[in-house]
Amino acid sequence: MGYDDEEIPRDEMSDDAYEAAYEQHRNALYEMLIAYADKEDLSDGFMAQLASDLGLSLRMIAYASETEKPSVGGLRLDLDRFARELGESVREAKKGAAEFIAEAKAAREEDERAAAEAEGGAPAPDTSRQ
Question: Among 62, 58, 63, which Cα is nearest to 74's?
Protein backbone atom coordinates (compact mmCIF):
# COMPACT_ATOMS: atom_id res chain seq x y z
CA MET A 1 0.00 0.00 0.00
CA GLY A 2 1.59 3.24 -1.12
CA TYR A 3 1.11 6.79 0.01
CA ASP A 4 -0.56 8.96 -2.61
CA ASP A 5 -0.73 12.61 -1.65
CA GLU A 6 -3.65 13.09 -4.03
CA GLU A 7 -5.67 10.61 -1.99
CA ILE A 8 -4.51 11.62 1.49
CA PRO A 9 -3.45 15.25 1.81
CA ARG A 10 -0.61 15.84 4.30
CA ASP A 11 -2.84 17.84 6.62
CA GLU A 12 -5.27 14.90 6.87
CA MET A 13 -2.62 12.36 7.87
CA SER A 14 -1.38 11.91 11.38
CA ASP A 15 2.24 12.90 11.93
CA ASP A 16 3.15 9.28 12.66
CA ALA A 17 1.47 8.03 9.46
CA TYR A 18 3.20 10.68 7.39
CA GLU A 19 6.60 9.93 8.94
CA ALA A 20 6.11 6.20 8.39
CA ALA A 21 5.14 6.72 4.74
CA TYR A 22 8.03 9.14 4.25
CA GLU A 23 10.58 6.70 5.70
CA GLN A 24 9.18 3.78 3.72
CA HIS A 25 9.48 5.64 0.42
CA ARG A 26 12.82 7.23 1.33
CA ASN A 27 14.30 3.83 2.11
CA ALA A 28 12.93 2.29 -1.09
CA LEU A 29 14.31 5.12 -3.25
CA TYR A 30 17.65 4.98 -1.43
CA GLU A 31 17.96 1.25 -2.13
CA MET A 32 17.14 1.80 -5.81
CA LEU A 33 19.70 4.61 -6.10
CA ILE A 34 22.40 2.56 -4.38
CA ALA A 35 21.68 -0.44 -6.63
CA TYR A 36 21.91 1.79 -9.70
CA ALA A 37 25.14 3.39 -8.46
CA ASP A 38 26.66 -0.05 -7.82
CA LYS A 39 25.58 -1.32 -11.24
CA GLU A 40 27.00 1.74 -13.02
CA ASP A 41 30.04 2.04 -10.70
CA LEU A 42 29.16 5.62 -9.70
CA SER A 43 30.67 7.31 -6.66
CA ASP A 44 28.62 8.40 -3.68
CA GLY A 45 29.56 12.03 -4.33
CA PHE A 46 28.40 11.83 -7.95
CA MET A 47 25.13 10.23 -6.84
CA ALA A 48 24.61 12.96 -4.24
CA GLN A 49 24.97 15.60 -6.95
CA LEU A 50 22.54 13.75 -9.23
CA ALA A 51 20.00 13.33 -6.43
CA SER A 52 20.26 17.03 -5.52
CA ASP A 53 19.72 18.02 -9.14
CA LEU A 54 16.72 15.69 -9.38
CA GLY A 55 15.27 17.08 -6.14
CA LEU A 56 15.48 20.63 -7.47
CA SER A 57 13.89 19.65 -10.78
CA LEU A 58 11.10 17.79 -9.02
CA ARG A 59 10.42 20.76 -6.74
CA MET A 60 10.06 23.03 -9.77
CA ILE A 61 7.77 20.53 -11.51
CA ALA A 62 5.69 20.18 -8.32
CA TYR A 63 5.23 23.95 -8.13
CA ALA A 64 4.21 24.22 -11.77
CA SER A 65 1.83 21.26 -11.66
CA GLU A 66 0.28 21.77 -8.22
CA THR A 67 -0.22 25.54 -8.26
CA GLU A 68 -3.45 26.85 -9.74
CA LYS A 69 -1.77 29.84 -11.38
CA PRO A 70 1.99 29.29 -11.44
CA SER A 71 4.18 32.32 -12.06
CA VAL A 72 7.85 33.15 -12.33
CA GLY A 73 7.69 35.11 -9.06
CA GLY A 74 5.84 32.29 -7.33
CA LEU A 75 8.40 29.75 -8.50
CA ARG A 76 11.22 31.95 -7.25
CA LEU A 77 9.53 32.22 -3.84
CA ASP A 78 9.01 28.47 -3.72
CA LEU A 79 12.68 27.92 -4.59
CA ASP A 80 13.62 30.26 -1.74
CA ARG A 81 11.49 28.11 0.60
CA PHE A 82 13.17 25.00 -0.78
CA ALA A 83 16.62 26.51 -0.11
CA ARG A 84 15.59 27.27 3.50
CA GLU A 85 14.28 23.72 3.96
CA LEU A 86 17.54 22.28 2.61
CA GLY A 87 19.50 24.60 4.88
CA GLU A 88 17.56 23.31 7.87
CA SER A 89 18.30 19.73 6.83
CA VAL A 90 22.02 20.48 6.55
CA ARG A 91 22.05 22.16 9.97
CA GLU A 92 20.39 19.08 11.49
CA ALA A 93 22.91 16.80 9.76
CA LYS A 94 25.78 18.85 11.19
CA LYS A 95 24.42 18.27 14.70
CA GLY A 96 24.78 14.52 14.18
CA ALA A 97 28.15 14.68 12.40
CA ALA A 98 30.19 13.15 15.23
CA GLU A 99 27.86 10.19 15.62
CA PHE A 100 27.71 9.66 11.84
CA ILE A 101 31.51 9.64 11.47
CA ALA A 102 31.91 7.26 14.43
CA GLU A 103 29.41 4.85 12.85
CA ALA A 104 31.05 5.18 9.41
CA LYS A 105 34.49 4.44 10.85
CA ALA A 106 33.19 1.43 12.75
CA ALA A 107 31.48 0.09 9.62
CA ARG A 108 34.65 0.59 7.55
CA GLU A 109 36.75 -1.24 10.15
CA GLU A 110 34.26 -4.10 10.25
CA ASP A 111 34.32 -4.36 6.44
CA GLU A 112 38.14 -4.40 6.47
CA ARG A 113 38.17 -7.05 9.20
CA ALA A 114 35.70 -9.23 7.27
CA ALA A 115 37.68 -8.83 4.04
CA ALA A 116 40.91 -9.83 5.80
CA GLU A 117 39.23 -12.89 7.30
CA ALA A 118 37.72 -13.86 3.94
CA GLU A 119 41.19 -13.75 2.36
CA GLY A 120 42.38 -16.19 5.01
CA GLY A 121 44.55 -13.68 6.76
CA ALA A 122 44.58 -12.77 10.37
CA PRO A 123 41.78 -10.52 11.50
CA ALA A 124 42.65 -6.84 11.44
CA PRO A 125 43.19 -5.38 14.91
CA ASP A 126 40.21 -3.71 16.55
CA THR A 127 41.01 0.01 16.61
CA SER A 128 37.51 1.19 17.39
CA ARG A 129 38.46 2.03 21.00
CA GLN A 130 41.29 4.37 20.10
Answer: 63
Contacts of 3 (CB under 8 A, 6+ apart): 21, 22, 24, 25
72-95 vs 97-118: helix crossing angle, rounded to 10: 70
CB 79 within 8 A of CB 64: no
Phi first, then psi: what are they for 126, rounded to 5°?
Answer: -80, 110
pLDDT tens sequence across 72-115:
999 999 999 999 999 999 999 999 999 999 999 999 999 999 99
Has this prediction a pTM greater than 0.85? no
Let me know if 60 is exposed, middle or buried by CB neighbors in 10 A (0-12, 13-18, 19+): middle
